[in-house]
Design brief:
8-stranded mixed β-sheet, Beta-lactamase, globular, disordered N terminus, alpha+beta, 2 domains, 31% helix, 3-stranded antiparallel β-sheet, Methane Monooxygenase Hydroxylase, Chain G, domain 1
């Protein structure tokens, strides 16, 4: 991979502004609305059956972080009791509070880094956005036969089913054979959200670059942006997730902390195109800031502005665009982002130059029916805080 580019003007070197902590007023945000937002996030972690035991919120505008708040507990339960449908709490001295630096399993937010890694390969001329996947992975005969394209993987319009049971395979050879055998069950060109899209995209970017996805993310995104708290697991200090057991889960692994929650990512060794990353609120705010600044942060450039536009323009390449169900009132003007099954979400809004990161462990001690209303409410609160 070429060295990280620097922004130059007139023989000199300019840096895109880095994030700095500041007041809501300095960020051009209403402090009253942000105070309500903070209270609401704390309320999400309270009570016997909270939305999430722990949460971290980071929000801001421009280069100013106006809110950086932790609530609740990163580790609260020892196990899940299916008979009472409650968590078995650890002794108070063994529970751990969430802090602003607590890493969380970000689940499908991993897809955003996979997408950026793919667009980096497009920018460097190694990958064609409308090229057939079969041109790079001829052994994936099923998708090659249907002429599924790279763009269709990035926009979830390949027709592939949502997932395949890689976690039930005996070994890696069987897992790869199952993945290669996947073919569209729907008509290519129609939307169907699928983890398989990002697993295939992982294979594509690894083939054209000659590097593993973990290396591409590290060298192309996290290291140049200074995202020192972001990595594929294991991550021993992370917030706990699920007491993962059948029948509610797809594997019997017990209480998870610091290892990937997603069963397929776990079966693949923890590095997968659809899940596997751990990150912090501050790191993901940096990621948002770099994209809002056209691909630059400090002296580093991870993408050129036209390729950031390619990434974020509707319908988005890997990013969801203008989705009120988790973006609330930030949706409607080109806001982009994603959610993660473990309780995470990220929204960046180029129209107002704002960003919101909400990390939570909603699956601790056990997965529940998804509820994105708190995510949408947080985004709406930020949208209402924007001044001018």
């Amino acid at each position: 991979m070429p060295p990280v580019e620097r922004i130059e003007r007139g023989g000199g070197e300019l840096s895109a502004p880095r994030l700095r902590n500041g007041t809501p007023e300095r960020a051009g945000l209403d402090p009253a609305e942000l105070s309500i937002l903070v209270r609401e996030v704390h309320a999400l972690t309270e009570g016997d059956r909270p939305w999430a035991p722990g949460a971290v919120l980071v929000a801001g505008r421009g280069p100013v972080v106006a809110v950086r708040e932790a609530a609740g507990r990163a580790v609260r339960y020892a196990a899940y009791d299916p008979e009472s449908d409650t968590g078995v709490e650890l002794p108070p001295g063994e529970q751990l509070p969430a802090t602003v630096d607590t890493p969380f399993d970000v689940a499908s937010l991993t897809k955003l880094c996979t997408s950026v890694a793919a667009v980096q390969q497009i920018e460097r001329g190694r990958l064609g956005v409308d090229a057939p996947v079969g041109a790079y992975l001829p052994e994936f005969r099923a998708v090659a036969r249907h002429r599924v394209t790279v763009r269709q993987l990035l926009t979830h319009t390949s027709g592939l089913r949502p997932e395949a049971p890689l976690y039930d395979c005996a070994d890696d050879a069987e897992r790869q054979a199952l993945l290669r055998a996947q073919e569209p069950v729907g008509v290519p060109g129609t939307y169907c959200y699928s983890d398989l899209n990002m697993l295939l995209l992982q294979h594509v970017v690894e083939r054209v670059s000659g590097r593993g996805l973990d290396v591409l993310v590290r060298d192309g995104i996290t290291r140049p942006l200074g995202m020192t708290g972001t990595r594929f697991g294991p991550c021993p200090g992370a917030a706990a997730t699920e007491d993962q057991r059948r029948p509610w889960a797809k594997a019997d692994r017990g209480m998870l902390r610091g290892v990937v929650h997603d069963e397929n990512a776990w079966a693949l060794g923890g590095v997968a195109g659809h899940a596997g990353l751990f990150s912090t609120g501050r790191d993901l705010a940096v990621f948002c800031r770099a994209l809002l600044a056209g691909g630059s942060y400090g002296p580093a450039r991870i993408l050129g502005p036209e390729f950031v536009e390619l990434l974020l323009a509707p319908p988005g390449l890997g990013f969801a665009v203008d989705q009120p169900w988790f973006m609330g009132e930030l949706a409607g003007r080109g806001a982009a982002g994603h959610t993660g099954f473990t309780g995470t979400s990220l929204v960046l809004d180029p129209a107002t130059d704002t960003f919101l990161v909400l990390l939570a462990n909603t699956v601790h001690p056990v997965r529940r029916p998804p509820d994105s209303r708190p995510r949408a409410a947080a985004a709406t609160r930020l949208a209402r805080a924007v001044r001018g």
